[in-house]
Amino acid sequence: MRRDINVLNDYFVRYLFSSKDSNLILLDFINSTMLDANMKTFRSVEILTPFNYKENYQNKETIAPKVGRRLDVKCITQNGTVVIIEIQLQGNSRFPERILYYWASNYSKLLKQGEKYDALTPVVSINLLNFNLDDSNNVHSCYMIYDTNSKRLLTDHLQIHIIELKKFKDNLLDKDLDCWIKFFTMKEKDNKEIIMSELVKEKPIMEEVQRRYNNFIKDRLMMNEYDKREAYLYGNQIMLEEERRLGIEEGFKKGIEKGIEQGMEKGIEQGIKKNQILTAKNMKNKNIDISLISDITGLSIKEIEEL
Q1: Is residue 164 a contact partner of residue 138, using CB atoms and an 8 Å limit?
Q2: How far apart are CA 79 and CA 23, in angstroms?
Q3: Which tens digits make up the pLDDT trace of 41-64?
């Protein structure tokens, strides 16, 4: 029986963009983004984060993502511009600060000790978000540093693209990016063969994208890693939603700022335990492997079996 997958799963996206001989696909997506923002395109790219089918995601995503986590895709163009691409399924209104931090982290690494500032090159950050940052209708926004009065560009070294997928409607973007976003907004239950057939007519390189998609779902090892990743994402999503509802995150923040009282600590511990049990029950109902549920929730196998 043929399986369909979530094309926004970052394990799949890394396979699509960072595998051996993925350069042309990656270049086309980057240039499609540039064209939609009326920016200069690139002639070639070199992948700096090659895809490894056996990746450990256990520490990649947490409720509060750790500083310095691995980027999804990173490459360098023929003129030295660094391009970083991230897929984010969850976030909030403070997410732009996180994007800026990762941009700054990559920019600062370009200059080695003793080198002059003219050794620095632009860093372009492209972020595909599966949530809305605000109430605007903008699907694709491009941010740079301008003077507030004259609109004069200070430097082209900072370029941040934010693509909010949930706002997407056909023909809102340049035709090339429009085609790519149609691909990334496909749902798991959609008839992907029909959709991809239409996309191939619009954009020939989508034939190679389709071929890689089919190869991915036929590969048992990669699908096994994909399933693990989906399980982690599902578990984290449930825990994040519950912690937001219970206000646990706010409790942690206030505790750090003012000192958590003993009663607050106990309440937070009880809330976390409740979230762990709820997450485990939901994942168990989906027939997810018990040992994987234990890794995600922190509950023992015995506790999970007794739920």
Answers
A1: yes
A2: 15
A3: 999 999 999 998 776 554 443 333
